[in-house]
Amino acid sequence: MARFIILMGVSGSGKTVIGKALAPKLNAEFIDGDNLHSQRNVDKMAAGIPLTDEDRLDWLNLIAKVGHDHAAHGTTCIIACSALKKKYRDNLRSNNPTMKFIYLKGSYDLIYSRIAKRSHQYMPASLLKSQFDTLEEPQNDEHDVFVVSIDQEISGIVSDVVNAGLV
Length: 167
Known about the structure:
single chain; 5 strands; alpha/beta
């Protein structure tokens, strides 16, 4: 069965690296949601300005459409998307009843230490606090979310997801 999976979490939680490692294990295509941002959003983030809900709406709609189209054509896709707020996740769920979220959960200190060591085209470490301020962690009523700790090696994270039997 084709699936639409969102790897969610704040910037620096490992969405891209985990997505690339997980995709072959699930016979899925990995899509980095960062590549679906409008140029206006990219420019705003590069300037150190956090995105607003309005800024994110077209981006979330495009991610939902891309995932839906893959699943409708019989292919599983994994899309990296922060999905920080419940209403963002609800938007992504719209017309995607079989989608799943994998929440890459980590502490601010752990993620800051990782993000400070990397170079990202438009997501400076200075925006991490705004991501944590915006984050609404999934609650028990969100039954389509699997939470995995990122305080382990990539192989452990991938194993946790594969062993959870989400797909």
